[in-house]
Amino acid sequence: MKNPFSYGFGVCAPYGLGIDYDKDTPFSTVAEKGEIVCATLNPVVAYEVSSSLSVAAGLTLNYSEAGLQRRIGLVPNDEFEANGFALGFNLGALWHPVSECSFGLNFRSPTKVHYSGESIAGPFSGKSKTTTDLDYPMNIVGGVSYRPDDKWNFEFNLDWTDWDAVNDALFVGTFGGNQVSPFRFKSSLMYEFGVTRQLVDGYYLSVGYIYSENSVPDRTFTPLNPDSDLHLLSLGFGHCGECFSWAFGYHFAYNGGRVVTGNVTSSPLGETADGKYTTFNNAVNRSCRYSF
Predict the structure, then answer these.
(1) pTM of structure
(2) Which CATH fold would you assign to the domain 5-290?
(3) Span 61-85, pLDDT tens digits
(4) What is the residue extent of each domain of the chain?
(5) What's the Cα-to-Cα distance from 15 to each of 18, 62, 163, 291, rounded to whole Å?
(6) Which of 166, 162, 174, 172 is nearest to 222 (CA)?
(7) Nearest 10 degrees: Cα torsion 250, 253, 254, 259
(8) Cα angle for residues 13, 58, 18 (degrees, 5° grid)
(9) Looking only at Cα atoms, what is the longest distance across the chain?
(10) Alpha-carbon gap, residue 86 to 135, rounded angstroms
(11) Is the distance from CB of 246 to CB of 287 less than 8 angstroms?
(12) Cβ neighbourhood burial of 178 (10 Å; 0-12, 13-18, 19+)
């Protein structure tokens, strides 16, 4: 009798941020450098309800590191470095009613990471123990895959993230008292399209396009997260084996320019993040999978 249970373990980075402006930027007292690294361990169990329907549930073990840096007038940097941990869960379902089509649904729970670290305000202040809490939103993705034959796969995903849950971050224990960083994001959608062409001996080529809606209003915009309505293109090449699979991808992102006005994320010198921001990014990635 076939065992209806399957087990898996994944490692991913669901969120991330890394940006570094030089010290000559016109908003150096607003933001100069920022980095958020998130790593998630995700053990999962799946159950085959029927030949066409499977469901799954998993636990997310989330570790994060954060670093922020800006200037204070003409003196060296105001810095914050910390790390934190949070637990969450994810749910999924796959329905395969006919051989050509399958439908998927994935839910990732919201989490709150408690960061504990140190901050420095200027060259003579010393280090101050500092903590803050940062909300990471829930995420729901629904998708459909259409395979007219063994060579082609056409996919579409609708990806919704509850960024509205990310409000203000209170930094407790900073030099000179507590500080508040306003975020007040808004929920947004990503529209994701992809086509894969199978080649020979398990090799394949993929092309994708994503339109990502802006989540950050002008009022609380920060140069450390220059979000906007964004167009993303990707090309991929990989190989799918019986146990081991790998892929390489190239990604291109462009927004055409965003003009920010009425920003209130001011610095001690009154600088704001008002201005025009253009995104033009290139990236490559590699992925590997082992099935057993």
Answers:
(1) 0.86
(2) Porin (2.40.160)
(3) 999 999 888 876 544 567 888 999 9
(4) 5-290
(5) 11, 10, 12, 25
(6) 166
(7) -160
(8) 10
(9) 73
(10) 10
(11) yes
(12) exposed
